[in-house]
Amino acid sequence: MFTGIVETVGTVLLVKQSGSNKSFWIQSSLSGTFKIDQSVSHNGVCLTIEAIEGDKHKVTAVLETLNKTNLNTWKEGTPVNIERCLPMNGRLDGHIVQGHVDSTAVCTKITNEAGSYNYTFRIDPSFAHLIIEKGSISMNGTSLTIFNVTKDSFTVTIIPYTFENTSISHLQEGDIVNIEFDILGKYIARWKELESK
């Protein structure tokens, strides 16, 4: 389990296709602290550490992950938000994030608010019931509060610290991001779905 509080930004060094899977070597300030078989959030995707070499580590994404996330767009130089799992005695500074991406969204608008930035994203309308005004969402592994919610879009405000310490500063209009909706909302939605049958 994660919190959506990004610890560092890594950089993709190498991408290798192996059958239907893709392996990635990523360089980061935390790579040397990882352990083999450890679960680490990469842009909101929970991936297993397979190898470590100095300040670099290797992870692999299977076809299911590649189909449902933005990992298929990763290439050499891609910045990656990284977060280790929440320790049992840690603080939940963001919100409960599983590292299980539900969908992707497209960045449709970026507005400089003279001190902060507003980013608007378009999502599949079938997920509209999982986004609420002032609710939590994980975007590329970053815990954010959403507003201006419509049936197929939402907006987030990025403060200077988040802009400078995550990969959000590299985001451009048209880019695809990973989205994980609030787990509490998903359980309630499932309960209501079953209740109506």
Structure report:
There is one protein chain. The chain is built from three helices and 13 strands; from the N terminus they run E-E-E-E-E-E-H-E-E-E-E-E-E-H-E-H. The chain is mainly beta and 197 residues long. The chain has two domains: 8-84, Elongation Factor Tu (Ef-tu), domain 3 (Beta Barrel); 103-195, Elongation Factor Tu (Ef-tu), domain 3 (Beta Barrel). The strands form two sheets. A seven-stranded antiparallel β-sheet has the order 4-3-7-1-2-6-5. Strands 8-9-12-11-10-13 form a six-stranded antiparallel beta barrel. A hairpin with a 2-residue loop joins strand 10 and strand 11 (142-147). The chain is globular, with a radius of gyration of 17 Å. The two termini are 31 Å apart.
Summarize the SSE layout with pairings.
Elements: E1 8-18, E2 21-27, E3 39-42, E4 45-48, E5 51-53, E6 56-61, H1 63-68, E7 79-84, E8 103-112, E9 117-122, E10 136-139, E11 142-147, E12 153-158, H2 160-165, E13 176-181, H3 183-195
Antiparallel strand pairs: 1-2, 1-7, 2-6, 3-4, 3-7, 5-6, 8-9, 8-13, 9-12, 10-11, 10-13, 11-12
Question: Which characteristics define this entry?
Answer:
globular, 197 residues, 7-stranded antiparallel beta sheet, Riboflavin_synthase-like_b-brl, Elongation Factor Tu (Ef-tu), domain 3, mainly beta, riboflavin synthase activity, transferase
N-C termini distance: 31 Å
Name of the CATH class of the largest domain: Mainly Beta
What is the radius of gyration computed over CA atoms, rounded to a whole number of angstroms? 17 Å
Structural class: mainly beta
Per the principal axes of the C-alpha atoms, what is the gross shape? Answer: globular
Number of strands: 13
| Total tally of structural domains | 2
Give the name of the CATH architecture of the largest domain: Beta Barrel
Q: What is the third-level CATH name, the topology of the largest domain?
A: Elongation Factor Tu (Ef-tu), domain 3
Strand order of the largest sheet: 4-3-7-1-2-6-5
User: Count of helical segments?
Assistant: 3
Percentage of residues in helical conformation: 10-25%
SSE topology string: EEEEEEHEEEEEEHEH
Binned strand content: 35-45%
The biggest beta sheet reads: 7 strands, antiparallel
EC number: 2.5.1.9
Keywords: Repeat, Riboflavin biosynthesis, Transferase
GO molecular function: riboflavin synthase activity
Enzyme class: transferase
